[in-house]
Amino acid sequence: MPTPESAHAAANATFATGTGPIGNSQKLDTATRSHHVGETLTKEASILIHTDPPTLLNALMNLSRAYQGQPPPARDPDSPGLPPPTRELVTRSVKGARAITSSVRLGLGGKTNFSHDFEVMAVSPLSVCFRRHPDAAPAPHDASGTLTMVGAEHNTTRLSMAAQMAAAGEGAPSSTNVPASKEAHALLDNLLQLLPALFAMFNRSGEVDEAVLGQLTERFLTASTQPSADEAALLDKARAYNDKAWKRLKGSVWEPVEKWRASAGETSAWGKAVGSVDAAAARVLAYLWYYESYERKNKNNADLIRLGIEIPNSHSMFQLVELNIGAGQKRFYASKWTWCRESSGDFIAALTSVQDLPEGEEKAAILTTIEKNKSSDAVIVSQSRGLYRISSLAENVCRVTLVAQGTIGGWVPDQAMKFLIRSTLGIVEDTRDKYERNGKVVDAELRSEFPPPPLLDQLNGEQMRIAQKCLAMETGSAGVEWTPLKSTSPFVAFSMQYTKPERNQPSVALGMAKATLDCSATEAFAYQFAVCGREKMRISKEGEDLARFVLKERAAHDFELASVKKMPFPLTNREFLTRYLSFKEPTGDLVVVFEALPDTTKVDYGANLKVVRAKSTGIVRFKPINGDAQCEVTQIQHGEFGGLVSDRVVVAKIPQAVRGVSVMRERFQRDDEVDGAKRSELAGIIESNNEIYTDVENSVVDRVRDQLDSIPDSSFEKLESPDHLVHMEGFHKGGKNGVPRASTVVDEDICTYVSKMRKRFDKSPAIDLASSLRLVAMIQNHDAPYTEKEEEILRTGVSHISMFEAQKGTELKMASPSTKAKIAYEKGSSFAFGYATTTVRASPEEVLADQWDLLNRAGRAADDLEKCVDEEPSGHNKLIYIRKKTPDAFDNRDFLSRVIWMATPSGFVNVTNAEESARRPHLKGVVRGKYPSILKVTAAGNGQTKLEYVIQPDFGGSMPAWAMKFYMSSNLSEVTKIQVTMQARRGLENWDDEDGKATAEILVTKTDAEKHHGREESEVEARVRAIMETHEGLRELGEKHGWFEVLLTKVVANKLRPAGDSRAKLCNMSEKEAKVIGGALASCIAANLTASAAVDEWMLRYPAMGELEREYVWFRPMMDTIAQRLLESVSWGLKMRLYVGASLSTMDLLSDLYMIYTAATISFDFDIMALAASLVSTHVYYASDPDEPVMEEGLAWTIMGSLSASWLSFFAAFLLLMKRPYLVTFFSTQTGYQYVQSKFLREGDENKKAVFKYNKKQWLSIRADVKAWTTENWELWEEEQPSWFNENFKASVDDDMIPAESLRKMNGGSQRRRSSLGDLLGAGAGGAKVAPVGGGGGDE
């Protein structure tokens, strides 16, 4: 038996010479080699484990635990009847300080069991040997080997494992003492599964990647050495790659990364990509350089090999990658990367193909490495070359430019070449996506580092000409007045100068906009000059502009911009080509001027856009005011719209042309902050009381005060208030308005202003919360005794709840789906009892405190005329008085009630009982009602509380049944109001999945806010707005994501329309994208059978929603609940599906009965679910309590019973008429998938080949077996040429199921159909990829 030492030595010798094939699992960073010499098979693998050697050694001593993290090996296909492989820990013992023994029994498909001993041989590096257990008898399958551990950086360990065993040569049969090669390979592969299992146990991929990236970043920033002469030559050669005639790729004009191409022959192409990345330049270079990162390997786990080889003491490294590009073909890319930092601060990295390197030892060594690492001699070595330039724009923002050439070998169609270019340049997009941050934050960082503009007298001749031309526009046209225009903002003033053009001349107009911005002139200037900033690009794209990009950058403050504006039909789209220039005047004003480029300027948009050239010339001046805390901005713009445009259109477009001022005003508005500072200043003046008033001022104040005081209270009449917390009265002298003696109009508009002012400073939620917390403390510490009368009131109230436990009652339809309610009558009583129950997210003490605080802000209703506490003898007893306004047809009502609460073992009860008091006599025109009720509050666990609410309102006097039912439902909704109030107080940090469900129920329930919605908002918008304002958690989320309210509004509105596309990430969502995404849920609900499936599709389609799901645990449950409620409620939802399903099932039933009647001897396919679907549909319909059922429920069930009886009768006749041999097929449980797969399991090639006639999905689970059958027998079929082995059969077999040599012959001899373009580019089963520059994977 080979010793462990001989195995390790043989492995080292084998791998040093590079013989034997290589396998690679890039996802786990493990490489496997095997070598077969004589009757000895050796295998070795290595892997980086993310822990230190001592910890790893301890894990090795408990191998059963390690192996448990890895799935067991595949079953031996040659012995399907044997049990699967096994792994178990047998014994473990300690033999001293340096010797630990752990025995593990591994079984291979039940054929054999063997054991290994592990003992420590050394400490540094640690070596562990394994061999046959001493107690076990020698066997042919004995294996031995070593594990070597070497400590590495970042608290990791390089673990290498070498194992060997006796094995027959390749293709030789096994003997008594030597197993077959295939069996030995499987056994050693089983052993090597230890490495990925250990990797999974200690996986810290993200942490290790971050540590390496940080180390590389520091290295690039602090490197003191310069590239060598050879490296400098490679860099110089790469710098010239950009000097080409570039053509923009179609469709890339609005992509975040711009792309171009340049032809380089039939087998390769040059591509160029430019994009900004939200990270430091050195960090981006580190990400590109760190080729073997776990993140990129996991993303490109189809790569056959992916290696980065650092060259010590240099600025270079080699990157190697082997790709499977489909159709059985592979490509190997190897390139040398060389980096440097230029004097400008830019980082550049040159990518040189190995074939381009000068002859020498380095090139010879890397070519040898390539040959050693190629998976086969048939792999083609392709070339790639390119250049990265990484320019810093801000501390954490840079611009990445990639110029690259990629090849895949052989002739490639033009469309495939374009795909190759995009794939090659994809690494820039991937890098941008990885580091993408919020666009507004990035723009602010860029503005903070924006270089100061040159002074006016520092401009060159051409620049001075443009500046003087634009400065002259500030004086306007001589003799033409500025005409004010209607403004969309009260803070922005628009005006224009317009001269009617001569006949057949283009229209020309001069527009002006002025505003004050709440920011410094420097910040506003930087915002204006960054015409392609993230925010401006978003606004332009949402405005449906067809293009917007920098055409040419002449200097930091001098560039050319191309943009195409979409015009309304029938106007043609307008193209604007403009040169922008900025400078600073001696006065300190910052100025931006712009002028149209010459008509001869041509632009490549990557597409043929039909446009008319328009021209724009103007000036934007930023004047600092208030010590540069604010600035005054003035924009004057001269526009020529091109073509013959009517005067009306020209005038209408002027405000749009200068709308940039409005955008800036909105962008930098700090109204609350500015107003707050002014209020604080005025408050200080008022509080100081040091103001001196003149005699006239004092006389005016005294006269107004006397006049107001002289008006008696009885002269004021109550006005209807839009705010139930504001009491409004007015004094009407006569006519339309009332004029008090101070001559001030006192009408509803003034009162509305008071209401708005109250809302402006409203702190009701905070006040109510503080009061509730105080009452919670009181309740928890309450120990006052109860009187006999109080206990009697409590007993009577509790008995009302037990009444509902004894009788069913009539269900009431409530606005909230989470609230269940019913109504019942007590024998002998003319008034009904109402019962409602729900669950709230609060403790019992919090619920009781909210109910006990009878005068809190949230509890005040719009119909409350008076509400007060008359007496409070104890902390658990109150006498309250409430006067309510009723509809005009009824007298107003008032209620006088005693309220008492008491603690119970599981919560509390709160009882209200009618009472009379001399302090509250009956009022004229007001009917005294009674409102006995009980609220039972019970802890339900998991932070929830169950509410049970029983009422028996006696409104006094007579009341029709419909009014009684209406008021009963309205008053039972009190539990829903409690649920909403408690949920509104929960902060976002406390939310879980139950909060998501509760919030969903609130969002789909109608509220009072919808009754007072404004003219410009819908009922749903008013509801969502009110909920967002009052719910603490949603308010916090709305502050973080300003678009969230828009998203919820569109979701709840549930309007069915075509779904739009949005690939925006969460950090860069806008309100427009929120509208698109929110509105798309309805179409997903319509297209799926269940609400959950609809939400799945919605979140997969829109990445931002997937990010929300990962960030907030409550988001998915909330969306599932909303979708379910919407599906239940809409006309095209669940009910319609049930009705249609029932109708179709019934029609199917009738058609089958007709077929039996007309052709009783034929066989047919009968859907047994028809009857069940009809019965279920009928039950669901009547269980939903329809307001106007199509027929009586009893009649419906009579019809269904008759149809069911007929169905059973004809079905029995059908069975009797069926041919006896086919009865078994009718009741068979075999599925279509099982039927197809059973054909392959039969003996004989004639039977097995039949699977290719069926859909491949039907035999996907046995595809590996089918592949093994075809690859093993293909050469035999080619020799024997059975009749079925024809071109049709060959065409139905996938490429990867045909031996490589046979496939190559078929393709070379045109014996096989040409692959489609998708297969050529890797879209087929082979998972092909197009190679990136530098040998990157699919992420490039």
TrEMBL record:
Residues 7-19 have a biased composition (Low complexity). Residues 1-33, 66-87, 1305-1340 are annotated as: Disordered. Residues 883-980 form the START domain. Keywords: Membrane, Transmembrane, Transmembrane helix. The keyword Transmembrane helix applies. It comes from the Eukaryota. The chain crosses the membrane at residues 1076-1095, 1154-1175, 1195-1217. Residues 70-86 have a biased composition (Pro residues). Residues 1321-1340 have a biased composition (Gly residues). This is START domain-containing protein. It comes from Tetraparma gracilis.
